[in-house]
Design a protein that fits this description.
The protein is α+β, with helices and mostly antiparallel strands and 739 residues long. The protein has 15 helices and 30 strands. α3 crosses α10 (590-614), α6 (505-527) runs antiparallel to α8 and α12 packs antiparallel against α15 (702-736). It is elongated and about 120 Å long.
């Protein structure tokens, strides 16, 4: 009795301990999932934060003259002002041991004594053309250099002269310049100007070597044929390819590439009254502001054999006031608008978002500039210079831009595009999650299309028809396939299977016909064999007889492939698909992925489905057979229905594996983020996209956070799908539990 009591107590202790350990493990799993969920939200949240604008500092200018230009260094420590007397003054915005806030670092006269500055034209990157009342033209560049000592860093301000300090001759007739715009690279500077005598001219300064090392150049003067003597505004694209000339309510676009001729490319005629113009970063779009507070974006779109400017989208300020000025960022598609009453609005073009709006000043500022890092703006009004911080790190990301079609510059129409990086500075990242989400579904669909019939039928045969001796060998062998690293499958799929599929494509489709047909023929032949022969063959070996039959079918499919290709497809099935059917063919395509990933999914589905079918109580099958049902009737009406919850769980587990698979789709798809169900084209999945791009993304950038958003989408997708699957499984269990 004592031993029995001790045994019972020990068993209860073990049961209690196991219960608490299992409960703790389950809670730990749930807690881990919640932590993952919360961390993903923590990383993603900043991309959806609204822009914030707050004053940083304000100083009183030493000069009371009218300001024409301003700017600030990258670190927002030094700002400059250029006034109408041609004085450039640099001010300290951040206190140091040597300088207080507002102290003057440098004052330099940029024009001759007594002259007045009539124009200060900014071409971006702090490159300014100054024109004075004596018709002298000087190109200057305010520059900031950091110097370091043992324990401090100091910003040294100076004025550079990219084309020399001598006055530039923009008009060979030396007429007074009324309006002017320019662009410059290391080899060429192009000026487009209107003169007092009603001419529109183009002047090119072409470097003998490189402006960076040698300011020597030759000058080419051209006169542009223009219908109007009045020019209100001029813009030149940074790539020196186009000039936009506004006259009245019309904007004429001229091509600047030819040194002998300046042809008119097109004319833009908005339906509203134009009040301001600006070029968007990237030199592809022009922004046009009107008297109703509406800004329209125009860029070239291919149509009817040529490219013409079209109005793509519009933005409106909340007040409806006329747009006095438009200021654009240097490296992003954000822009600022200013009205006469000092209302400032911040917009981003491709996301079509208004990021911020507010009355920042009492009236339009004398000078306005955006910092090089786009994290601040500097305004000058009367004798005050104000530095305002702008927190606007992810303007390109909105829920609409992530999931809706977006019309990007250079594209013929709106589209879903994922293209996160490029080799050019003016590139605009494109972050549509639709192509990679679609790719995930496409890859899983073709994998399941290949795996489900094979895995389920194999599970049915192994659990219901196969002899116990053979089952003990077959089931572990198939389950061992699950231990095969997917990187090996991906490697074989990309480098071995894909070329075979491309070369013997007809054989792949012949196999779809030959394998089932040969199986039926072999079954029919076995059925009609004399009983004396069947008896001599052990029952365990009967299914193995099918293996050579399948191998022969495989051989004939590949042997007939060249014949079929030559007779039906003109000797090249790939060219036939591309040229005759108009379907693009990629070597690494959905067919390859379906086969490779199907092999990875088959063991999961097979193992769980086989267990579910084998676990059906024997009394159910025996009772069905005893009542006169055949084996097939018993299988379909009793076994499969009873095992349906387990079979459904197997399918869901296989689908989850296919959706989350990384290495196979990474190595065997070509990673093309396209929206196409074609079996002959590849795709890019969420998991593969994260694996490819996470190492190259900048921590904290929009790209980095959107990759975490992609992970979150994958997490939510699998969570929701598994929850629904569990709901369906429970319903099936309740429905067929009475069998």
């Amino acid at each position: 009795m004592t031993l029995a009591f001790k045994s019972t107590g020990s068993r209860q202790l073990k049961n209690s301990l196991a219960k608490w350990l299992i409960t703790l493990g389950g809670i730990s799993v749930l807690f881990t999932l919640v932590l993952i969920f919360m961390y993903l939200l923590y990383v993603i949240k900043p991309v959806f934060d609204s822009a914030k604008v707050e004053p940083l500092s304000q100083i009183t200018l030493s000069s009371t003259n009218t300001s024409l230009s301003t700017g600030v260094d990258e670190l927002k420590e030094v700002a400059y002002q250029i006034d109408n007397e041609g004085l450039a003054t640099f001010y300290r915005l951040k206190a140091t041991d040597q300088h207080s806030v507002g102290s003057v670092l440098l004052t330099q006269r940029l024009i001759s004594e007594g002259a007045q500055l009539t124009h200060s034209v900014n071409a971006g990157l702090d490159l300014l053309l100054l024109i004075d009342s004596n018709n002298n033209n000087t190109l200057v560049s305010p520059d900031f250099k950091a110097t370091y000592t043992a324990d401090s860093r100091e910003i040294v301000a100076k004025i550079e002269y990219p084309l020399g300090e001598e006055s530039l001759i923009i008009d060979e007739n030396e007429a007074t310049i009324k309006k002017v715009a320019f662009g410059m690279d290391t080899e060429k500077a192009v000026f487009v100007a209107s003169t007092a005598d009603g001419r529109l001219i183009k002047t090119s300064f072409i470097a003998d070597d490189d402006f960076t090392y040698d300011p020597a150049y030759e000058v080419n003067f051209q006169e542009i044929e223009f219908y109007s003597k009045t020019v209100d505004d001029i813009l030149v694209t940074p790539d020196l390819s186009l000039a936009f000339v506004k006259s009245g309510n019309t904007v004429s676009v001229f091509e600047l590439d030819d040194e002998d001729n300046v042809p008119l490319k097109t004319v833009i005629k908005p339906k509203t009254t134009i009040t301001s113009l600006a070029l968007l970063s990237g030199s592809s779009s022009i922004l046009i502001g009107d008297d109703k507070g509406v800004i329209s974006q125009w860029f070239e779109v291919a149509a009817e054999g040529n490219r013409d400017f079209q109005e793509i989208r519009t933005f409106s300020n909340e007040t409806g006031e006329a747009i006095k000025h438009i200021y654009t960022e240097q490296f992003r598609k954000s822009f600022y608008t200013v009205t006469e009453t000092g209302v400032v609005d911040i917009f981003y073009t491709t996301s079509e978002a208004e990021l911020w709006s507010g009355k920042m000043l009492t009236k339009a500022p004398d000078a306005f500039a955006i910092s090089p890092r786009a994290d601040a703006i500097i305004t000058i009004l009367d004798d005050s210079l104000v530095l305002t911080a702008v927190h606007n790190e992810h303007p390109e990301v909105t829920w609409s831009a992530l999931w809706n079609e977006v019309w990007y510059e250079g594209y013929q129409e709106p589209d879903y595009i994922w293209q996160s990086t490029s080799g050019t500075d003016d590139f605009e990242a494109k972050f549509s999650l639709v192509p990679i989400s679609f790719g995930t579904i496409k890859a899983a669909f073709y994998a399941m299309l290949f795996a489900v019939p094979i895995a389920i039928t194999a599970a049915i045969y192994t659990a219901y028809f196969m002899t116990p001796g053979l089952r003990k060998k077959v089931k572990p062998t198939i389950e061992l396939m699950e231990a095969l690293p997917t990187v090996i499958l991906g490697f074989l799929a990309g480098l071995w299977l894909a070329p075979i599929v491309e070369i013997y494509l007809p054989a792949i489709f012949l196999l779809v016909l030959f394998l089932p047909l040969s199986t039926l023929i072999a079954a029919f032949a076995w059925y009609n064999l004399p009983k004396e022969i069947k008896v001599k063959i052990p029952e365990t070996l009967a299914p193995i007889i099918l293996i050579p039959v399948l191998l022969v079918s495989l051989y004939f499919a590949f042997a007939l492939s060249p014949v079929v290709e030559a007779s039906l497809f003109g000797g090249d099935v790939r060219q036939f698909i591309t040229n005759e059917l108009g379907i693009n063919f990629d070597q690494r395509n959905a067919l390859v992925v379906g086969i490779a990933m199907g092999f990875a999914v088959i063991p999961t589905i097979f193992s769980m489905a086989e267990d579910a079918i084998f676990s059906v109580p024997r009394h159910l099958t025996s009772g069905s057979l005893a009542l006169g049902a055949t084996q097939w009737q018993t299988l379909i009406k009793v076994v499969l229905l009873t095992a349906s919850p387990g079979i459904f769980s197997a399918l869901m587990m296989g689908l989850g594996r296919a959706v989350g698979e990384t290495m196979i789709v990474l190595m065997a798809t070509g990673n093309t983020p396209i929206l196409d169900w074609s079996i002959f084209q590849g795709m890019r999945t969420l998991a593969a996209n994260i694996a490819v791009e996470m190492p190259e993304s900048e921590v904290g950038s929009s790209h980095y956070r959107i990759l975490f958003l992609a992970a979150f989408v994958l997490f939510v997708f699998t969570f929701v799908f598994n929850t629904l699957a569990e709901f369906v499984r429970q319903r099936l269990r309740e429905k067929y539990s009475s069998l």
